[in-house]
Amino acid sequence: MTGLAIDDAAWASAWRRRSPGDKLLVSLGLVLSALLLPVWPGSLLVGLAAVVLALGPARVPVRTFARAVRAPLAFIVIGALTSVVEVGDGLGWAPDAAAQAGSLVGHAVAGSAAVLLLATTTPMSDLLPALQRLRVPAAVVEVAGLVYRMLFVLLTSLATIREAQTARMGYATVRSSYRSSGALAAAVLTRSWDRARRLQDGLAGRGLEAGLRVLPETLPASRRFEAATVAGLAALAAVSLGVAS
């Protein structure tokens, strides 16, 4: 089965056996710090802290973390560019375009790095039960679990169909590549829709009205880790506010 690099990194992380609550505390604390602290030097320190924790104690592969950052970074850059354009008599830059773009990029990159710290260290099988214990609505947790499972169906279908197309020289020329890509997208979406419908019919036929009941693995929380996290976040906030003032 085709896997996700982030999911593989989470299972292989040195923080795999750490409590999801501990990791949620770190990541959510960094996300809030990225949103509330001044962009300089707060966002820079938050981003550096998230990267250092991921590549250092958690031992996430550098290549995996760098590849995971690329997608949100593209959206951040596009959002920054559109936020500094001023529409009046014509298109132009806003008076404080550089400051606006820098603030948006700083906060967003730092927050994304903090979220990726959680994603690359915590498998979904650990995160979903933790969300249930935090009183997140059951419907939200169930939808998240189903989307996560369907991702692997999509990836498997994508790899299988593309391999068959490549074997038939479907990507030999630019024209055939466009044709094959369109057929690939149509086939994957159709197959995924069919699998989702059959899954729904199968669950309805078994009379399943509530979520799937599983026995989650219990990972004890570390008071020392939580205390160090709170102290680190407080120190980060103190340094950021001190430099900004």
UniProtKB/TrEMBL annotation:
Pfam families: CbiQ (PF02361). It is found in: Cell membrane. Keywords: Cell membrane, Membrane, Transmembrane, Transmembrane helix. The chain crosses the membrane at residues 24-56, 68-85, 97-119, 139-161. This is Cobalt ECF transporter T component CbiQ. GO terms for cellular component: ATP-binding cassette (ABC) transporter complex. GO terms for biological process: cobalt ion transport. Its main location: membrane. InterPro entries: ABC/ECF_trnsptr_transmembrane (IPR003339), Cobalt_transport_CbiQ (IPR052770), ECF_CbiQ (IPR012809). It is a multi-pass membrane protein.
